[in-house]
Design a protein that fits this description.
Blueprint lengths: L1 E5 L4 H12 L4 E6 L5 H6 L3 E4 L6 H8 L4 E4 L9 H22 L3 E5 L6 H6 L5 H15 L4 E7 L1 E3 L6 E5 L6 E3 H12 L7 E7 L2 E2 H6 L2
Parallel strand pairs: 1-2, 1-4, 2-3, 4-5, 5-6, 6-10, 7-9
Antiparallel strand pairs: 8-10, 8-11
Helix pairs in contact: 1-7, 3-4, 4-6
Protein name: SDR family oxidoreductase
Pfam family, one: NAD_binding_10
């Protein structure tokens, strides 16, 4: 399975491309914003596509040609304004979904926020609410398609070394999870068709990643 990783130069994306390239069943294509980011992925033997998420659907669709799955790991980051949140986390996500449809790619994995319910938007601090709202509507857009989607809702992301043990379920207690383990879960999700049509929350736990994904 060839996988287009959107937001590949992010911390989850880099881990994910590394895990995919180490897999016997998966192959990565890294979508990056500029050519200067390419060397990391080329050293892993991964193909790259230089595309900015603020470009049009057809440009993103061209990057998705010939792949079997798309993973959306991109994010505007905590230090950008509401404009970038809209342009990347909402519009960028929706354009990527539409690009997958245009390119004939059925499998789509979305990395969302821990809680994207309407209640979460209302309860979020004013500085965080636009991000939650953007993720909410991107998730809803994906669920309204006929794509073979999975939506992953990770807890508070850390840069700790991954342990390879998580808790994954429709609803879990809020907690932390290393970005490295999120990437492990994404890779396991891609290899498990029983995750299609599901969404789940994810935090550090005591269950090995493959077992946790298999139990969903």
């Amino acid at each position: 399975m060839k996988v287009l990783v959107v937001g590949a130069n992010g911390q989850i994306g880099k881990h994910l491309v590394s895990f995919i390239q180490d897999s016997d069943h998966l192959e990565a294509k890294a979508m990056i914003r500029n050519q200067e980011q390419a060397s990391f992925f080329e050293d892993l033997g991964a193909e790259t596509a230089v595309v900015d998420l603020e470009q049009d659907i057809d440009t993103i669709a061209k990057a998705a040609e010939g792949v079997d799955a798309v993973v959306f790991t991109a994010g505007s980051g905590p230090h950008t304004g509401k404009d970038k949140t809209i342009m990347v986390d909402l519009d960028g996500a929706v354009k990527t979904i539409e690009a997958a449809k245009t390119a004939g790619v059925k499998r789509f994995v979305m990395i969302s926020s821990f809680d994207t319910t309407r209640e979460a938007i209302q309860e979020a601090p004013s500085s965080f609410a636009p991000y939650v709202a953007a993720k909410h509507y991107a998730d809803e857009w994906l669920k309204g398609t006929d794509l073979d989607y999975t939506i992953i809702h990770p807890g508070l992301l850390t840069n700790d070394e991954g342990k390879g043990q998580v808790e994954a379920a429709v609803k879990v207690e809020r907690g932390e999870v290393p970005r490295e383990d999120v990437a492990r879960v994404i890779a396991a999700t891609l290899e498990n068709d029983s995750t299609i049509g599901k969404e789940f929350q994810l935090v550090t736990g005591t269950t090995p990643v493959k077992d946790a994904v298999d139990s969903l």
